[in-house]
Fold these 4 entries.
Entry 1:
Amino acid sequence: MAKKDKLKTVKAATKSKAARKAKVSNARTVTETATLLSSEVVYEGPLFRVHHDKLIEPGGLENEREVIRHNGSVVILAMDKSKSKKDPWIVIERQYRHAANQFLWELPAGKMDAGEEPLAAAKRELAEETGYSAKKWKPLVEYWASPGFLGETMKVFLAEGLIAGEARPEEDEKIDFRLVKLSDVVKMIKKGAIHDGKTLTSVLLYLQNTRGKKAK
């Protein structure tokens, strides 16, 4: 192949790659929503509501869905870096989860009250479940927990500069919490000892972000 032809091929491939990136970038900014034809509450409890919705999806498909509506939840990745910045200690909890029929290791978390700001909810949940407060708060990520049927987002906060206090768990909560080194939490994840999605998401994303900063 001649040098000119090679150059044209490289330019074409570069343009094609740039076009694909532009499409992905545009897809992230455009929000398409369904047309809701009707919505009926078929169950309402203290934690969530179940809706039966009739809708027309953005692609034009008419459909019916059962959706659990929830105020949303907060997750707290609470860190103590006083002993080691490279391998900080993380607050994790162990509690029984009936839906999973087992005890799970988790980060502190809880649902937001109606109209409650996410940061206020995160501070409240951390204090109630562990007694800790924190000097520094930073949002880490927000994601949909299980969007196939659950209308719940989980907003994760990084909490640093921990101050110990007295836990005030709710009457139906029995929580065992402790400080564990980040490296040990990662070992637990690799061994399959942590099955909780919010904990996996939060810890692994934090690791990815910190590694990215070190690489720069």
Entry 2:
Amino acid sequence: MTQDIQTTQETQADFFSNVVRDTSDLAFERNLWTGGLIHVAGVDEAGRGCLAGPVVAAAVILPQEVRIEGVTDSKLLSEGRRTEFASMVKEAALAWSVASCSASEIDELNILWASMEAMRRAIEGLAVSAEHVLIDGNTSIPNLGVSSEAIIKGDSRSHTIAAASILAKTHRDALMKELHVEYPVYGWITNVGYPTTAHYEALRKHGVTNHHRRTFRLF
């Protein structure tokens, strides 16, 4: 029986009656659970397009058939809803982990491979070992040591990836707001490191910080 947290529970008979193909956001997970892979992790990153700050990744393993009503791609949610759902994901998850690659690591590796490394670190940080990993995007993570599947637009197609996207986004936003206290002129409390007119103007006026990605177009 699907457990919808804070929503009406459906009986298994009702859910599967007349269903030919599972098109829900648990379809990928159910396919793996049916095949005997119980600990399915979803992983996603936040901050690839930013001028400053780390790229942050989160990995989540949810219990079988647990679905948190309202959880979806973090970009589609308000800040308040993301914060609310982040707490719910952490409470419901069998395991969750957050990891990052710094601006200097991004400059060294490039943003794609730094994102992959941050996701690998998040998966390795799970307290429960993943038996399979669902990855947001179209690129497999190197040196993962476990079977995996890259899913284009996975944060809107897989519930577990969506949960991970929320943890990654909320964690990174909180980090950037902490850095704003030290570097208030760049407006990180609102733009969280993304390219905005005000951010570019601050760079021209005040220069770069150690948190800026020097291989990105900053001026």
Entry 3:
Amino acid sequence: MILLDKGDTRLILETCKKHKLLRNQTAYVLATAYWETARTMKPVREYGGERYLKSKKYYPYVGMGYVQLTWLFNYKWASDLLGVDFVKHPRKLLEPKHSAEIIVIGMKTGAFTKKKLSDYITLKDSDYISARRIVNGTDKAREIADLATDYEALLLREGYGVDNDTNTNPKPKPSLFGALASLVRLILDLFKGK
């Protein structure tokens, strides 16, 4: 069962707010973390014994964190991003403060697969199934999409993206036509003596 108080969900949520993610984007980040951490919402090391993990092409840079960061180039990317040497100290990827920044920034910028949140999830559309490509092809896309839908409902109920504090639902800027129409109404009112 998904909850906004499970594990490190609140930390991830605050990191999403910090990076100005939309409510539906935040819902998808939370759904991804929930799935990738085996529903714990705690950074985890890829499951499997050392024999199994050593069989992976990316060993010793095995999946770590909320998003299961793998491969040397991703460890180097995260090191450069946060100023922490994850190549020499991979267990630091299991520290929630690091893992939260990595999942949010990585998904926002497309660092993992060159696909980013805004490619699939915007103010107008929430293509949660295709959004799986941000992290891992289409593996378990339907299951994660369903989780994102549930998270979005919880976030809405909590008010995420409803007020200006979260900065996730920008107000439309007035158009030149709208400003001109307001000016004409003001001038007409002046001449009518209002």
Entry 4:
Amino acid sequence: MPLTFTLDPAVTPTLRDGVLALWTDVSNAGGAVGFVAPVERETIRPELVKHFVGMAEGRTRLLVGHDEDGHVAATAFFSFNTHRLMTHWVWLYTVMVHPRHQGRGYGRDLLSAAADAARTFEDIEAIRLTCRGGLGLERFYGSCGYKEVGRIPGAIRVAPGDDRDDVIMLLPLA
């Protein structure tokens, strides 16, 4: 069954807990979403709160995918630029699909839904994201239409002696 995507869902305790569980499960499965396993929900919670504050302030929007049982299965957060010379593109952050749904094409579905959503945003011409090098993520994003436009070697320190590239990807929406 495909995921059902919703842009700007109501932030309820169920949604909050679902996104927090997703973020924890993705992190603990080795996903490159800002944390390194093992990680607890309480470690992730402050970062989720920052996203929710951005949503309340109108700087951030959430795209959530629910599975056939109604559970949060995927997310992507859009962040709008405040610099007047960069308001024509958005950041895409915390792009996640639950590990139990890996290999079903849901990552592609999420990125397609994100592009469709961004096309509805006034004056937005592109989506920009970064990903952690060394995991093949840049190949995945490339297969979804994103182009690598920059790379900062060793910018992400996963652990002492384990530095990864920060890969900058761009998807033009035109």
